[in-house]
Amino acid sequence: MRFIVGVDIGGTFTDCVVLDTSADGGVAVKIGKASSTPPDFQSGFVDALRAAATMHGVSLEEMLGDAHVYHGCTVGTNALVEGKTAKVGLLATRGHADATFIMLSGGRLKWMPANYIAHVAKQTKPAALVPRTLCEEIDERITFDGAIAVELNEVHARASIQRLIDAGVEAIAISLIWATANPAHEQRLQHLVREMAPGIFVSISSEVSARVGEYERSVATIINAMIGPPMQHYLAALEVDLATHGYHDKLQIMSCSGGLIDADNARALPVLTIGSGPVAGLIGAANLARTQVGGVNNVVTADVGGTTLDIGTIFAGTPVRRATASHGQYEYFVPTLDVRSVGSGGGSIVHSDGQSLKVGPESAAARPGPICFGRGGTRPTVTDAAAVLGYFDPDYFFGGRIMLDLEPARAALAELGSPFGMDAEATAAAAMRIVNSQMADAIWLTLTQQGYDARDFVLYGFGGGGGLHAAAIARELGMKTAVIPLSDLAAGWSAFGITASDALITESVGLGLGSPFDPATINARLRELEERVLAKLAKQGVAKDAVTLEHHAELRYALQTNQVSVAVEGGVYDGATVGRMVATFEADYERLFGKGSGYAAAGFQLTSLQVRGRAALSAVTLEAIDLESGNSTPEAKTTRVVMWSGERLVTPVYDGSRLPPGSVTSGPAILEFPDTTILVDRDASATIHVSGSVVLTVGAE
Amino acid sequence: MASAPVIDITQETAVSSAKDIAWTGKVHSYRPKGDWRTRVDAGINFHDDAIAELDPVDFEVIRQKLWTINMAHGDTITRISGSPVLATLDFNMSILTEDAEVVLNAPYVQFLNAGAPLGIRYILEHYSKLPGIDDGDIYCCNDPWIAACHQMDVLFAAPIFVEGRLFGWVANAGHQYDLGGIVPGGWPQNSEDVHSDPVVLPPFKLVEKGVMRPDLEAMYLRQSRLPDMVALDLRAQIAGVVFARDQVMALCTRFGATTVKAAMRRMLDQAQQNFQRKLNAIPDGTWTETRYIDEPLPGIRHNQRTQLTVTKRGDRLAVSNAGTDAQTIGTNGIPFVTWAGSITGIVSVSMLFEQLFAYGGGERQIDYEPTPGLLTCVDHPAAVSGGILHSVPMMNAMQAILARMMACDPDTKEDLVAPCADYVLPVLVGFDDRGNFFGQAILDCFACGSGARSFGDGIDSGGPTFSPLSMILNVEQIEQWYPLMCLYRRSDRDSGGAGKWRGGNGLRVAITPYRAQSMSIVTNTGGQGATTQNGQGLFGGYPSPASHYLIRHDTDLNERMVARVLPQGAIDLTGDTVWLSGKSNGTSLGHGDVFEVRIGGGGGYGDPLERDPALVERDLADDAVSQDAAERIYGVIAGDAEATTARRKALRAERRAWSRQETDTAAATAATGELDRAVHEYVIARDVDGERILACAHCGERLAGYSGSYKAGALMHEGPVTQIPSAPDPARFIDDPMVLRRFACPGCLTQIATEIARAEDAVFPEMRLGLN
Description:
The complex is a heterodimer. Chain A is α/β, with parallel strands linked by helices. Among the domains of chain A are: 3-79 and 233-273, ATPase, nucleotide binding domain (Nucleotidyltransferase, domain 5, 2-Layer Sandwich); 84-226, no CATH class; 503-615, Dna Ligase, domain 1. In chain A, 32% of the residues lie in helices and 27% in strands. In chain A, a hairpin with a 5-residue loop joins strand 33 and strand 34. In chain A, helix 1 (41-56) crosses helix 9 (214-244) and helix 14 (424-450) crosses helix 15. The two termini of chain A are 50 Å apart. By secondary structure, chain B is an alpha+beta fold. In chain B, the strands form six sheets. In chain B, strands 2-1-5-4-3-6-7 form a seven-stranded antiparallel beta sheet, sandwiched between helices. In chain B, a hairpin with a 4-residue loop joins strand 23 and strand 24. Chain B is globular. The two termini of chain B are 50 Å apart. Classes of the chains: A alpha/beta, B alpha+beta. At the A-B interface, helix 4, helix 5, helix 9 and helix 14 of A face helix 1, helix 5, helix 11 and strand 14 of B. Chain A: InterPro entries: ACX-like_C, ATPase_NBD, Hydant_A_N, Hydantoinase_A, Oxoprolinase-like. Chain A: This is Hydantoinase/oxoprolinase family protein.
């Protein structure tokens, strides 16, 4: 196939990155952008494709006739955010339907901002995912060892299912206690539902997320059911639209696990698409990290958007994973790359409590937006502060798509700062410093929680605000290097990451195995998982010999709660292999939690096994990509007065796209790209890497 | 019912005269005197320099960093320990100044940090010369008369030195698996005095200049039944303070110690000023709460009284325990540190939340006036380890007092929360089918219901106010750890107090042994949580009904399971019924037996007859309230608006027959010329005919003179506690007659107050405005 098409649908824009693999001099990249078109996102999708095709000088039909289309879709996320999800009924083990109401009590606050946790009187619980009247308790019980303590009462179960059908549910979630240890009852219930209501969407916990912990597993299963019908509807419409325009290959969908799955798989497990955008960004960063931009392949990524900062970690070239994700206060199991959101971004509101200046977590978001956008915003934001400091060309913001009106922003900042004796510029500088420090603190806390030291990392900054904040955050964290990856692509970075992704299928099974572990059990489970992985990849169009299998086991010390997922051998297990599995766990545990922190005397628990099957879908490497970077002498296109830590300096402004690889620009300077502005502070310099990335070196000393 | 042991609980310890109390930590608790710093060795060079002009942006940046460091301190502990106890966040950590003012606390168990300032000042006073305080040292202490809320919550404190000067401290306090004593797990309910409790260790220097002393570690672990596990947690807690200490030092290197110190001082000052501002908006007066503590020792069918009195004068609070019964033998008291921690912990979440748990400066405005030898400030050698849960009714008392104070100002009224449930804590002990010992507290009370607010309901299974982040474990995790099967864990109907806004509901949880060789149940309960009530109601809202521990022996559970039908509740099974009291030391649970614990809800707010009937109908549909409560308490007949109106009218009219109190004429206050001012949801202070009075806010009826008790002018009904829907009869375990009193405005018949009291006790004054 000649074209590789990556499409990422965001709330505002749909980005489409198209790689032309037959271009002269390597691979040519073009970005097509179009407005997103909710609720029928497929229109914006086709608009963005057409824009990119035009830039490559081909028609949409020509392009699609010779293309692979990879897609990161936010349909599920949007449905959740806007509450336009399917009406779901829940089947749970008798006595346990309340798990998703109870939300592990304070566990619901785990990822909430400090000011929310502290203000006890204003806390609340989110609305129930499934109203109580649509929760049915089923007489059955599996125990932790997989034994059936109570056989499934099918008579009662049928009556329960019938009540849900009569209530008009569009989807049914089935989540039973210890379905991870024995899925028989869930499978039987699924069968009953299919028999009684053939068209209905069914989601069962042992397939959605086979991990121990009924709360997070039930939430995953319910969310999957909630977005199943809208996702099916969307993909069906999209496939028709794409076929109309000549596309007949399989549509591949980006998953939060860090790889592509086929559209049928996405229909069954739409929960895997939530958060896939930021994950794609992290995958793109991991690919770039392999080229050693910035010198090391330990990377922390800062995707700075309008309302949030998304933080990802790549250690030794591999993105760090986690087992849970959050939907508001709900936490759910999903095999995802670890991307954490904190409420700091361009839209974060600068405010005062009368005693000191603060930034966020409240955001002006897209509406009303920053004051300087002139869309009705009245409270100053980080973007207003940046504009007042002279970081942007008011006539060339977002490539000239938004005209900035500075005066009202200046006035608001001046008013805010006056009790502290600060004028507009000083207040703006203060806001930038506070938000940069906040972002750095959030990254520091993330790395600390993951067991890493920030000083061993380089920072990749992307998203709309990556270029503004990256160097300051890096400096704050004691790093020497910040990278704005493939600067021209930074704003379409997620779409680019999608084009660079592999096919990836993750299958896991929960266990409650005490040591010494029985190799026969491990072998049986691993073979089952391998079979499932290979079958799904085969359906996705991947040949068996193209698949790389990775095996992982999750263990803990019998008397301690920390579970660690470790890479383990495939193949047939015996006593020696089991011994090596435990040894790997002990070594990883010690690295993560400190020397002597594990208590081996009481033995070990094997809590899950996971098999990942991975296959490259395209042979494109980053090195082959030709960004058509400039080759002219780097000369400033203009100058602007910019505030640098309280000093007003006439600062050269460069057209970033015209700077040739290897060129070095010393600060103070501003590099402008169509969608990104990069600050080069006085003690920093910017070097253009052969990949087209901008490498900022901070701290002249 | 087991017969009560023959112990004379009236035999009280002599109460010291208030004049010259030796607060030395020997008999009475340690409380530093005003001049404690003069006893610190001259070799300690306090770093008390701070730059005068702190840049406001530096301040905000450093404040955030201190917060982040403190949170990472907590993460370090949970990560390294891996303990299921610490995973539920039964600990807390703090950053303190050089002289041990708390700069930052964390959203974990609030009262646990109270020990740090006391312990550190004790160390400075007593050990600054020998064995000395040096860079790299870490002190450890679990002495409840000095710095631990009870022996199981062990304090670790590390000094921070910058250029040879003592810059500050970091500390954490966390719960241990076992430190000895006559019952595994450290909650011996049958301790007559501290000599039966877990080991008590006054402060000792465990780590010297970065090196742990093996002899002292061995001493620390020797009394534990699980020394290896305690050793792991010891390392986790040490790693926590080391990490936080190093991070604060790095902050000083970067910003300059004098700048960081200025930021710390400003955090303290801001907390103090905010607290002062809020206090100034509240009228002067005295608020009191009376709570009872059941069963000094298991099986003793009596309760004892505690009283908490807060006097607000200008911008200061004076807090007293006068009126509390003297200590006796048994696990019925708490030491000073726990009492003080209960007070600051609730102030922190109620009135200083903007400070994000930087409450230390607020404490400058609090004068503690404890009388030693009383149940809420017990002297050595009282048994205290098993009494720790009595801190929860003390926090609930403080919460009710603060809520009533906060209702006097429209801004702070938005932030008040009614008390949550008292704490019920069953411990499971036994051997699994592989012969492994297990002994673990079920901490599901961290999912109790929270109290109602002035604008909305409490949160169902929202958890206690005093520990926002504490969480419960999944049933599947618990079943992986312990040999049991959980039959249900469900939201519990009617467990929240009724009201215009109802308290959040708690849980009902039942287990049966599975693959267990043996299992027995130990019960531990705070206050009257297993007999009489949980959280108090506010302003006519009902208290939440008591919790319970229920065992069903030799049930038909197995037959039902074979027949593929699981029970909805333990009470539905056939078999013998045993209700366990709040304190019991091991009831065997065999195969086919079922144990159910009811986890309480929060207190209600306002007259239930004012609740929107639509909300009651929603609650009925969600099974959050019973039909009985809807009709009898809320006066709501589902689906029939007319019948509801009639029912409510009738219920209101019944109050006309309630008895009239004696009018309190002595409290007359002349008119002040001030504006009308709400001082309660239903009470307003205003000038009428030359007198400043307390009047009903709805109908204007005079209830009392300004400094009188508004209850005095109200109609009162006194009846059994079982009038509260689903409340058990206290007489099951307690011989002291307990009553529910309800008060209504004689004019409009709005229910304006409720209280639970011993029948013999006079009506609680609750609030007396003005200071005479």
